[in-house]
Amino acid sequence: MDDYETPLLSKDSSSSSSVITSSLKWILKVVMSMIFVTWVVFLMMMYPEQLGDDFLTFVSSKTFLGTTGTMFLIFSCPILVISVLASLYLIISGEDKVFTEKKISNFPRFRLWTFPVLVDGPFGVVSAAEFLGIMVFSVFFLWSIYAYTLRNLDLLERFHVLPKNRSILLLEVTGLRLGMIGLLCMVFLFLPISRGSILLRLIDIPFEHATRYHVWLGHITMAFFSLHGLCYVVGWIIQGQLLELIFSWNAIGIAILPGVISLVAGLLMWVTSLHTVRKNYFELFFYTHQLYIVFIVFLALHVGDYMFSIVAGGIFLFILDRFLRFCQSRRTVDVISAKSLPCGTLELVLSKPPNMRYNALSFIFLQVRELSWLQWHPFSVSSSPLDGNHHVAVLIKVLGGWTAKLRDQLSNLYEAENQDQLISPQSYPKITTCVEGPYGHESPYHLAYENLVLVAGGIGITPFFAILSDILHRKRDGKACLPSKVLVVWAIKNSDELSLLSAIDIPSICPFFSKKLNLEIHIYVTRQSEPRLEDGMVHKVMHPSVKLPRTNGCSMSVLVGTGDNIWSGLYLIISTIGFISMITLLDIFYIKRYNITTWWYKGLLFVGCMVASVLIFGGLVVVFWHRWGKQTGEVEANGNDKVDLNGEETHNPSAAELKGLAIEEDVQSYTTIRYGTRPNFREIFESLNGKWGSVDVGVIVCGPATLQTTVAKEIRSHSIWRSANHPLFHFNSHSFDL
């Protein structure tokens, strides 16, 4: 963290700023960093060499761990230990964190995570930190191939084989090495895809951003696994034993048929996850990706517990996250109200417990059972955590079949309410929703900048409503809030989308907001050359709203990995201890006692222990976590404000607020609408030089990839050629590509 930027502080400033707390956090950071660096160096640099094998042989021969225990200790334990330490770090850091206005430097600083280095190419917009990661993995691939090639040639020299068998042996050992590189890549494969991952929370990377790392690693992993299988198939064809060997299932050593099944499942996931297929046939991609269960289980049967323990750590953390998501998503959630805007966008207000915490820029996964029991769709949260304790609002643009069905269902509800067709509860149209999340950044990073530029395209304005509401609430209530200047740049196709502005009522949130916040909203209507007659009053129109009848559902479940730090930490720690205990007891009292030597069976037992430990030990924590959430939610709900028909919590304004509302400021005076043009970001950023001076500027972009690339290009160009008196822009993207 930069020295001009203050640490995140909890509500109890005396305890979070204490020397003891700071020292503990520093110690945990150092320990986690040392473990991670040592682990990565061994994994990527030492293990491909003969030195790595010699070290593993030495440890397994000199300790009671054995071969499987040594592999698990070296490859999987470090990531589990880091996860446990990360949970302790977050518990010490506290629940509610804000940025204060102290220690602001007069000179902007370079940040690895927010400076775009690559903006064109297959990786999209890549920050400096991501570029370093790509370079590290590239060096690892080249080094591994080089080291394994030398070992293969040395192996051929050591064993005197006939010339006709030399090519076959070379193919098989090359396939073995390629498979090992694939396994080493798979160590990291499941870490970014865990939505509530404690590791992602530690480094403050939200799931929707980390998904791209999973995509990159998935392509690389499957490429090496495919070459692994191809080498063996070619060798077997040369020997004339393809059908005989490909269906073999050995008890001792590698079981080939399970490997074939695992590879086929992986190839199906890989092909259907290509961008073109995923974009045009998302359901095919989604359903095919459920083959990950087949891929993992048969991989364990293929390589046995010995080799599977290399990738067990990341898979175990994924299973933990998946089980918690399953528990949360079983609850049906009440829809408090629903609204349809003139542009066709839908607004749903969902019930949430008062003790559920989240940040602006969060998102949820939503399921509507009347439409599909299998489809889950991500939507950005448009409400601020400070809007109220009992609700979360989302805006949904009708773009495809699922959203069109949801719009039709809401239309039926509206017609039934207005025509008084409620004969019985069974005949009334219903919307049964289930929710996963909210997920997002661990810290409210939009509060880390004195100046903000929010760039949106179309429905991408949704998360910025949450940011604006959060800032305005903090300004009104006198809470710590660093931003003092906010520029919103919003590009839309048609003026119909202007009605989205009605989702936030700025003057009612913060009367006289212009005295506390310098807010400018620049709107670009790209497909209209002039305004329509009704554009001036478009966000004053009242939209049909329907209050849904209460079902057997309730508010959202608190069982989310990004929720309470203490409970999520206990869930991880107890499940991990239970897992290690189970495999240790299984090895002592069953495998060794009964001399179990079958590789595939031991691999199956290993996977069984992983799942059983999550169900038993993690399930026990989930039960108590659920009871705690229910009890504390009821306590916090007593005396709190309730939610009205529009999904807004009632608020008793003070005399000053009433006075402010009497002479309400017109937000249109701060809004500039330009027709028939697109935003010129070079001009926009250059115009900020004189206005904002030499400060850090946070630029958050939410929109299509082309918009992100355009903004990132200008930020990089401006940062390279900037003078000492110009601001330094920091690029942050917020979008989904699931």
TrEMBL record:
GO terms for biological process: monoatomic ion transport. Coiled coil: none annotated. It catalyses: 2 a Fe(II)-siderophore + NAD(+) + H(+) = 2 a Fe(III)-siderophore + NADH. Its EC number is 1.16.1.7. The keyword Repressor does not apply. It is found in: Membrane. GO terms for molecular function: ferric-chelate reductase (NADH) activity; metal ion binding. Keywords: Electron transport, FAD, Flavoprotein, Heme, Ion transport, Iron, Membrane, Metal-binding, NAD, Oxidoreductase, Transmembrane, Transmembrane helix, Transport. Residues 328-445 form the FAD-binding FR-type domain. CDD domains: NOX_Duox_like_FAD_NADP. It is a multi-pass membrane protein. It holds the Pfam family Ferric_reduct. One of its GO terms (cellular component) is membrane. Its cofactor is FAD. It comes from the Eukaryota. The keyword Metal-binding applies. It is an enzyme of class 1 (oxidoreductase). The chain crosses the membrane at residues 26-47, 68-92, 123-148, 169-193, 213-238, 245-271, 291-320, 452-472, 570-591, 603-625. Belongs to the ferric reductase (FRE) family. This is ferric-chelate reductase (NADH). The lineage of its organism: Eukaryota, Viridiplantae, Streptophyta, Embryophyta, Tracheophyta.
